[in-house]
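User
Take a look at the entry that follows and flag anything odd:
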Amino acid sequence: MDLGLTGKTALVAASSQGMGKAVAMGLAREGVRVAICARGRERLEATAEEIRNETQVDVFAQTADLSKVDDITRLVQAAREHFGHIDILVCNAGGPPPGNFLDFDDSAWQAAFELNLASAIRLCRAVVSDMKARGWGRIITITSMSVKQPIPGLILSNVMRAGVNGMVKTLADELAPYGITVNNVMPGSILTQRIVSLAEHREEEANTTTEEILDHIAQEIPMKRLGNPEEFANVVVFLASERASYVTGTAIQVDGGRIRSAW
């Protein structure tokens, strides 16, 4: 299937590793020129070089802390100057720390807001005007299965990811007349450093090993395994394409069937 993406440009946030990296690579394989960002320069440059070597597309890399408004502004401006415009925006960010409701004070809640909800708001605001002027655009947010099924011990993520989903549904309605689709993709248990770190956090209190915790998680999934980042990225790449032109305002789970809700 021709996805109609050759020559498009994309900004993929938090993309030096994990699902963000897989999305950037997947888009590049379809001929999309990609701008990637992360806080760490070394890993970011290594990822950029890896994508260039495999796909021969133009890759622009810039360090950015997505919790800082000035970094987002500089990132979008630099990507726009490099490519001329941005056709596709993939909002992604690392998850806030695990914990329960009484574990966090106002500063922790504010930090989670800046990283996970405000970053998506700011990135969207920075690209929407150009997309409207061009009459075409794709915005995809990466959140979590917690949008539909809250995850115990992840109160900050549960709240902020749900907020992103609310923004997506509202923005999809506003931008549909301009040829812009807006969708949310909810990963379940995808084998990234994030899920390994969460398992390590539970290791001591559960009196078991990280490997045993990951295996227990896998057994709760109908497919009996964790997903891999490429499987997740395939869904995002499709939503970014011409073939998904009539799909907007959706929240799509990529979780091996783990979410039990029928809706």
The first strand starts at residue 9 and ends at 12. The mean pLDDT is 95. The chain has two domains: 9-190+228-254, 191-226. Residues 9-190+228-254 form a domain with the Rossmann fold fold (CATH 3.40.50.720).
